[in-house]
Amino acid sequence: MRNVFYSFHYANDAVRASQVRHMGVITGNEPCSDNNWEAVKRGGDLAIQRWIDKEMVGRTCLVVLVGSQTCGRKWIDYEIKHAWNNNKGVVAVKIHQLKNFSGLQSTEGGNPFAGFNLTNGTSLSRVAKVYNPPYYDSKDVYKYIHDNLPKWIEEAIAIRKAY
Description:
Layout: E1 3-7, H1 10-21, E2 27-28, H2 34-42, H3 44-56, E3 61-66, H4 74-85, E4 89-94, E5 129-131, H5 138-162
Parallel strand pairs: 1-2, 1-3, 3-4, 4-5
Helix pairs in contact: 3-4
């Protein structure tokens, strides 16, 4: 099992992300408790950056869990850039069709790798993969992610090694 760092928009997608993080097919970063996260945030941007950097040590891949408002968020962008620049695989999985506690699905978000360019000028969105489960039913989406996530992570790691 790979050890990955999950990146997601907490306010909108914590419940959906939790479903993926607790599938048991990948070892992932443990969630920071609300109290600890508030303490980190009070430390300002540098404290958040240090927390992210520390949490990414020993990870082999960044998995961006994409909801409706994931793209373009400051810290998700930082995590993508940090992971790629530190030779970690990067992959994104759209989770908008998983249900939250209220039983609601969300709208599809964009490609979180758009806007990033590699040193050779190639757009990261042309290199890193974004997977969008081809189902509408939340249970089917869950199963699809469960069955494919390890393969997607291995592919992301191989892609990163090729660059």
